[in-house]
Structure formats: structure tokens, C-alpha cells
Write a structure and sequence with these properties.
two-stranded antiparallel sheet, two-stranded antiparallel ribbon, mainly alpha
Length: 478
């Protein structure tokens, strides 16, 4: 397929975002939705007694999807107005209905209501993809719910956790984001038929002062487009805070994805867990042995973009004057579309990575056993106290032995010999077998396996039940 290599093309289109999400923000979807809105308006106006015929509506419906772009674009070069250019082009295809297209409406009737419809559809797609990530992580958490691994605070080894328990942390934050986006969707309302400054004056004129019919018109239009309600009040546009709310939710998804990807990048450097690596994939042009976490790095890169982009609609909402200023338009059409496209790209990668995570169990166990002697000292001390030892003396001895063993590891590059030091100390009335009995990693993971099972059953399963498994295929460009 040919490509213009002299013009900028967004990598969100060529490399990252799925075809499905790209279609939602495409010209075809936009202008077809404009026509859906004009049809919905004409149907409602006819139902409420305006002189519009079924034949006119049928003609509009016959040309709902076949946009005559050549006519619209030529007209726009003359009149410099995109909505009126498409009204004209639609009228050329539907000559019998030309006079009733856009009747009583203002440009924001099609522009803003279309944006609301796209927000709804794009958010539903995002939620479906989030659910697939959850489904992948749930299977991973179940499989590894009891595998002990090092936990970290301050990026320093802390008490043990399990590989599966850590996965529930990733899941939990993504579920919080999904709940936020679900809330925004539940609260989303169509702009409706509000007129030029939100007063519905043009429609009140059309219906000769009959406010009941003006209100019913809006209800019928909303119903025809799948909404229960329209915004109670607007200026010329729907409140730009709506965009800020939705991009805030997308920013949350990006934050959670970045947290997951950063953890995975660190785990890959520890050689404990890796993202998928293709058979013929090249990790480095200079170092053939390398297996770089390139997908996780891409998640982090795109996430930073989305988090930053969420500031745009917030600033737009804050700087609107009275009923509306047009400085929202150029910013909005870039910021909102690219936030959804970038989050879609993030989720495409997230799905791909979580479907193929590789766990090196022997490495995980080796790293646990290197640190476990330090973590087992409290249990060893308690066993020695049961046999008559002095708790304070034992604590001081363990402190000294631990520091000596740490010096052995850090300064001399030797093995961790803490257990041998404890065995040789007469303060500890324990045999080597009794000391080794305290060295089972499973003794130090607390309720982690149970927490995983409870979380999957009580939290993840009810959410996933709202999103049937679609066996979603990613379109990842690796």
C-alpha cells in the first residue's frame, strides 16, 4: 500500500493503536454520526408534528453512510464552515429532504453530540481491553499464587510475598481505574438539542412556544441514540469538564499500566520474570545476547504521554469564557483522540505481555534462599527462646551474625553463611536440622495464597462477569 513519505504521519496510526479504535476517531465515523444525528432530529421533529414526511426521512437514511466527500470538501473551500458544507453535501444526495436537514440545530448539535457518542464507544472499547488484561493476570495470579518470592520496600528485599500476590496488586489498581471509567460512562449525558447558547430558543420558535414539545424533542433524540438523559443545562457546548473527567480516567489506566511495566522491567533485570520474546526478535543491534523488555518500555513511554495529555482538557475546561469560546476546538480534537489512541496502544501491549509472561521459578527460589537466612532470624530466635534461651542475648547475637554474614556477601563476594554461624554459636540450643526447618520459604508468605484466592473470587470475578471473554486478538506491532 502506498504511503506519502513527505508528510508527518502519527505513529499512533502507523504503529500503535488498533484499527478498531482508529475507526472510532476517523472521519468516516465522525461524519456518519453527524448524519445519524440529523436523522434522529428529523424523526423526532416529525413525531412531534413538524411538516416532515417519512419519504424525506427514508431518503436521509438511504444516504446515511455514503458520504460524498468531494462535494463537502469543495463546498468547505467556499464557505469555510465544515458543518454547513456537510449539510449542503447531504442535501445534494437527498434533494427532497434538503430543506429539513439540521432544522433548528446549531453546529454543536452534531459536533458535540458526536463527540459524546465517540467518548461512549471508545470508553467501552477501553474497558473491554482492560478486562482482557485482568483475565490474563487472573490466570497468572492463580497459577503462581503460592510461589514465594522476594518482596521489596524501598527496592530493598523485605518480607516474602508470592508471585501471584504481586499480580493481584497490578489487577487491583487496574480495577480501580475501570471502576472510575465505568462511573464516568454511567454519568455521561448527551448534549441534546440545546441551540446556539443552550437556551433552546430556536426549537421553541419551531414549536411555536410549546415548551413541552421542546423538552420531548430532546428526550426522543436522546432515546434514539441510546441515552436516557441529556445534560440538564449547557452553554453552546457540553461542559468541557466531561473531557477532563474521561482523560483523568485514562490517565489512571496509564499510571497503573506504567506501574506494572516498571515492575516487570525490574523483575526482568533480576531474571525472575520476563515479557514474551519472539523466536527471531533482536534485543540489541550491538549485543546479540540481550533480551530487552522493549514492550514494557513502550508501555511506560506511552503512559507518560497520556498522563501529561490529561492536563489539556483540564486547562481547556478552566479557560472557557461564558457560554463558549472556540479555543477549545483545536486542542480538544488532538488531546482527546490521542489519549484514547495511546491508551488503546498501551492496552494492546499490556494484553500481549500478560498473555505470555515467563517465570523462571528456579531463579526466583535462588534469590529467595539468598536472603531467607536474614528473614528467618526471628523464627530461629523464637525457637531458641522456647528452649530456654535469653531473648535479648539471642537478638544481639543474631544482629552481630547478620552483619558479619552481610559483610561476607557484600565485601568478599562469598556465600551467605549466616546459618552456619548460628549453628556454631552455643547460645542457640538448636540442631542444624531444627534450624533448617525454619528455612522453608512457604513459612514466610503469610496469607498471600489465600489472599489471591479471595481476591480472584470476591473482587475480580464479579468485574469480569460484566465483560464476557471475547478471546481478543491484539494487533501489536512488535
Amino acid at each position: 500500500m502506498g504511503q506519502n513519505r513527505d508528510s508527518y504521519i502519527s505513529p499512533l496510526s502507523t504503529r500503535y493503536a488498533s484499527r478498531e479504535m482508529q475507526y472510532l476517531f476517523s472521519e468516516n465515523n465522525k461524519f456518519r454520526t453527524w448524519r445519524r444525528l440529523w436523522i434522529a432530529l428529523a424523526k423526532a421533529e416529525r413525531q412531534l408534528g413538524l411538516p416532515i414526511t417519512q419519504e424525506q426521512i427514508s431518503q436521509l437514511e438511504a444516504h446515511e453512510s455514503d458520504i460524498n466527500y468531494d462535494v463537502a470538501e469543495a463546498r468547505e473551500r467556499q464557505v469555510r464552515h465544515d458543518v454547513m458544507s456537510h449539510v449542503y453535501a447531504y442535501g445534494q444526495q437527498c434533494p427532497d429532504a434538503e430543506g429539513i436537514i439540521h432544522l433548528g440545530a446549531t453546529s454543536c448539535y452534531v459536533g458535540d453530540n458526536t463527540d459524546i457518542l465517540i467518548l461512549r464507544d471508545a470508553s467501552k472499547l477501553v474497558l473491554r481491553k482492560c478486562a482482557q488484561v485482568l483475565r490474563n493476570l487472573a490466570a497468572f495470579a492463580e497459577k503462581y499464587k503460592a510461589l514465594p518470592c522476594l518482596a521489596y520496600t524501598h527496592l530493598q528485599p523485605a518480607q516474602l510475598t508470592t508471585v501471584g500476590k504481586r499480580a493481584t496488586l497490578w489487577m487491583n489498581e487496574l480495577m480501580m481505574d475501570m471502576e472510575n471509567l465505568e462511573f464516568q460512562l454511567a454519568a455521561l449525558r448527551l448534549r441534546g438539542t440545546k441551540g446556539a447558547t443552550g437556551t433552546q430558543a430556536s426549537f421553541l420558535e419551531l414549536f411555536e412556544g410549546d415548551e413541552a414539545r421542546v423538552k420531548e424533542l430532546e428526550r426522543l433524540v436522546a432515546e434514539g441514540l441510546g441515552f436516557e438523559k441529556c445534560a440538564a443545562v449547557t452553554g453552546q457546548t457540553y461542559s468541557r469538564k466531561v473531557d477532563a473527567y474521561f482523560l483523568g480516567a485514562l490517565s489512571g489506566i496509564a499510571q497503573s499500566a506504567c506501574k506494572f511495566a516498571t515492575d516487570l522491567r525490574l523483575l526482568q533485570s533480576f531474571e525472575e520474570v520476563e515479557e514474551p520474546f519472539e523466536k527471531s526478535q533482536i534485543g540489541s543491534s550491538a549485543m546479540p545476547y540481550k533480551r530487552n523488555p522493549m514492550r514494557s518500555e513502550r508501555i511506560c513511554a506511552l503512559s507518560r504521554y497520556v498522563i501529561q495529555d490529561a492536563v489539556n482538557p483540564a486547562m481547556t475546561a478552566a479557560t472557557q469564557w461564558f457560554e463558549r469560546t472556540l479555543d477549545d476546538s483545536a486542542n480538544k480534537r488532538i488531546a482527546v483522540a490521542e489519549a484514547f489512541l495511546a491508551v488503546d496502544a498501551i492496552l494492546e501491549i499490556y494484553i500481549n505481555v500478560t498473555a505470555g509472561l515467563v517465570v523462571y521459578e528456579r531463579v526466583v527460589r535462588r534469590r529467595v534462599m539468598e536472603k531467607l537466612p536474614f528473614m528467618a532470624t526471628e523464627n530461629i530466635m523464637m525457637e531458641a527462646v522456647k528452649r530456654g534461651g535469653n531473648r535479648q542475648q539471642l537478638h544481639e547475637a543474631l544482629r552481630e551474625h547478620s552483619q558479619a554474614a552481610a559483610r561476607q556477601v557484600k565485601l568478599e563476594g562469598g556465600a551467605n553463611d549466616l546459618i552456619s554461624r548460628i549453628e556454631a554459636d552455643p547460645l542457640f540450643p538448636l540442631t542444624r536440622e531444627e534450624i533448617d526447618a525454619q528455612m522453608a520459604p512457604e513459612k514466610y508468605v503469610g496469607r498471600a495464597p489465600s489472599q489471591v484466592a479471595e481476591f480472584l473470587e470476591n473482587e475480580a470475578a464479579p468485574m469480569l462477569a460484566r465483560y464476557p471473554d471475547e478471546a481478543m486478538e491484539t494487533e501489536l506491532n512488535v
